[in-house]
């Protein structure tokens, strides 16, 4: 699974002008399931991002996780948006290839699993809509943007 994690001051996703998901400070996760991904990759990605220490502590060091912020009563939203273009292969020609992205049915199942598990573990989860034409607006905080890839173990 591929994730692009952004620490945000705020973020929202809209479809046809209607806001369908919105958070204040927290994390925006753009996520793509790849061929061969299973529930294991979704679980590992979620576990990692909830504990990733990328928020500043009192000394200004990146030392706090999303769950640490929640425990401290600080804004700790999580906005999860599916984005199959994260699997783009640009190594040949001028048109990206998306052959490594999971087939839509598999991608949607893994996205839904990730969202369901996130909601079970974190109370402030918002989402986009799988397969929809979405517009994402955000204020990146830092900026902090971290690519994440959880690969199947063979």
Walk me through this protein's architecture.
The longest helix is centred in the C-terminal third of the chain and has 18 residues, at 104-121. Helices cover 24% and strands 36% of the residues. The protein has one domain (2-140): D-tyrosyl-tRNA(Tyr) deacylase (D-tyrosyl-trna(Tyr) Deacylase, Chain: A), CATH 3.50.80.10. Strands 1, 2, 3, 6, 7 and 8 form a six-stranded mixed beta sheet that branches. The protein has 154 residues and is an alpha/beta fold. The chain has helices at 39-51, 66-71, 104-121; strands at 2-15, 18-23, 26-32, 55-56, 62-64, 77-82, 125-127, 135-149. Strand 4 (55-56) and strand 5 (62-64) form a beta hairpin.
Briefly summarize what is shown.
The protein contains 3 helices and 8 strands, in the order E-E-E-H-E-E-H-E-H-E-E. It has 154 residues and is an alpha/beta fold.
What is the general shape?
Answer: globular
Order of helices and strands: EEEHEEHEHEE
Through-space gap between termini = 14 Å
- Total domain units: 1
Query: What percentage of the residues does DSSP assign to strands (E)?
Result: 35-45%
Tell me roughly what share of residues is in helical segments: 10-25%
Number of helices: 3
How many whole angstroms does the radius of gyration measure?
Answer: 15 Å
**CATH topological fold name:** D-tyrosyl-trna(Tyr) Deacylase, Chain: A
Uncertain residue segments:
none
The helix-and-strand class reads alpha/beta
Q: Report the CATH C-level class.
A: Alpha Beta
Q: Mind telling me the CATH superfamily name?
A: D-tyrosyl-tRNA(Tyr) deacylase
Strand count, sense and barrel status of the largest sheet are: 6 strands, mixed
CATH architecture: 3-Layer(bba) Sandwich
Q: Using DSSP, what is the number of strands?
A: 8
Average pLDDT across residues? 96
């Amino acid at each position: 699974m591929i994730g692009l994690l952004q620490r945000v001051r705020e973020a929202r996703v809209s479809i046809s002008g209607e806001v369908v998901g919105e958070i204040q400070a927290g994390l925006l996760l753009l996520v793509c399931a790849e061929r061969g991904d299973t529930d294991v990759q979704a679980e590992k990605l979620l576990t990692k991002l909830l504990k990733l220490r990328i928020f500043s502590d009192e000394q200004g060091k990146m030392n706090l996780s999303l769950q640490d912020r929640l425990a401290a009563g600080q804004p700790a939203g999580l906005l999860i948006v599916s984005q199959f273009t994260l699997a783009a292969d640009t190594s040949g020609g001028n048109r990206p290839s998306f052959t490594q992205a999971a087939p839509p049915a598999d991608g949607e199942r893994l996205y839904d699993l990730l969202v369901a598990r996130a909601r079970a573990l974190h109370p402030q989860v918002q989402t986009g809509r799988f397969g929809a034409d979405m517009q994402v607006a955000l204020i990146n905080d830092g900026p902090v943007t971290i690519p994440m890839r959880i690969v199947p173990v063979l």
